[in-house]
């Protein structure tokens, strides 16, 4: 089997389609679904697509190393480089699974769990007929109660993303040593949710909006209010 062409599609994220001479195609995604990096990932996928024409898609490791080592700048890595490699790599695994007529997870070690826990995510934007975003502590309490009453036993909320008036809060407000007003806003919301009295796990999402200093301060609140996990407290490269 040989790769004959690679198509790249831009929409909500960047998707590649790897085509073969046996009529089997695989799909992969760059993973850069938002922000200002999507167009760069699009170009990266186009460039990498040229380098795999004629190769055997079943040789995923050979192709991964080919893309990484045979592009001089690619050896430096980085989000865009690895987004391009991973998009093609995912498509190759899709092809391999289709060619062997097995789900990809069977090729990657087999099934491990029969069930997976789920959580209600990004509640600050709204999970009911009262559309967010939410600014008041009582609104955070309301939407948390709604999700918990819906059967979830874990919820995730970003307490820093939306200001008290319900509009987007600039990232600059979340960095460095945050103001007492900012910290009170975060704690009031966290307390309102935890004071529901339900038995549930709370995940705090920071969306990389905080830096090392402000993340530690919010982390102390997470300890106080028995938070299960603090997600994305700093930027990926910190």
What labels describe this entry?
3-stranded antiparallel sheet; alpha/beta; 38% helix; single chain; 3-stranded parallel sheet; 238 residues
Q: What is the overall silhouette?
A: elongated
Number of strands: 6
Main-sheet strand order equals 1-2-3
The number of helical elements comes to 7
Q: Helical residue percent?
A: 25-40%
Q: For the CA atoms, what is the radius of gyration?
A: 22 Å
User: What class, by secondary structure content?
Assistant: alpha/beta
How much is the average pLDDT?
93
* Share of β-strand residues: 5-15%
Q: Helix-strand pattern, N to C?
A: EEEHHHHHEHEHE
Major pleated sheet: 3 strands, antiparallel
Low-pLDDT stretches are: none
How far is the N terminus from the C terminus?
42 Å
Describe the structure.
The chain is an alpha/beta fold and 238 residues long. 38% of the residues lie in helices and 14% in strands. It contains 7 helices and 6 strands. The chain has helices at 38-51, 60-69, 79-100, 104-107, 137-149, 180-194, 212-224; strands at 3-11, 13-20, 25-29, 154-157, 201-205, 229-231. The strands form 2 sheets. The chain has a 3-stranded antiparallel β-sheet. The chain has a 3-stranded parallel β-sheet with strand order 4-5-6.
Summarize the structure in short.
With 238 residues, this protein is α/β, with parallel strands linked by helices.
Helix and strand topology:
Elements: E1 3-11, E2 13-20, E3 25-29, H1 38-51, H2 60-69, H3 79-100, H4 104-107, H5 137-149, E4 154-157, H6 180-194, E5 201-205, H7 212-224, E6 229-231
Parallel strand pairs: 4-5, 5-6
Antiparallel strand pairs: 1-2, 2-3
């Amino acid at each position: 089997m040989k790769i004959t062409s690679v198509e790249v599609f831009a929409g909500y994220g960047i998707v590649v389609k790897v085509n073969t001479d046996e009529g089997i195609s695989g799909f992969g995604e760059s993973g850069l679904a938002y922000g200002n990096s999507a167009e760069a990932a699009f170009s990266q996928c186009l460039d990498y697509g040229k380098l795999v024409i004629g190769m055997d898609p079943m040789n995923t490791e050979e192709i991964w190393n080919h893309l990484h080592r045979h592009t001089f700048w690619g050896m430096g890595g980085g989000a865009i480089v690895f987004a391009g490699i991973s998009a093609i790599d995912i498509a190759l695994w899709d092809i391999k699974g289709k060619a062997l007529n097995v789900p990809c997870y069977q090729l990657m070690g087999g099934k491990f769990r029969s069930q997976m826990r789920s959580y209600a995510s990004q509640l600050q934007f709204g999970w009911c007929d009262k559309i967010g975003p939410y600014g008041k502590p009582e609104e955070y309490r309301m939407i948390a109660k709604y999700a918990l009453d819906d059967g979830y036993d874990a919820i995730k909320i970003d307490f820093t993303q939306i200001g008290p008036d319900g509009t987007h809060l600039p990232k600059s407000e979340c960095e460095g040593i945050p103001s007492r007003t900012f910290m009170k806003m975060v704690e009031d919301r966290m307390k309102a949710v935890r004071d529901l009295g339900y038995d549930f796990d709370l995940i705090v999402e920071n969306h990389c909006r905080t830096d090392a200093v402000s993340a530690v301060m919010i982390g102390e609140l997470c300890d106080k209010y028995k938070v299960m996990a603090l997600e994305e407290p700093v930027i990926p490269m910190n």
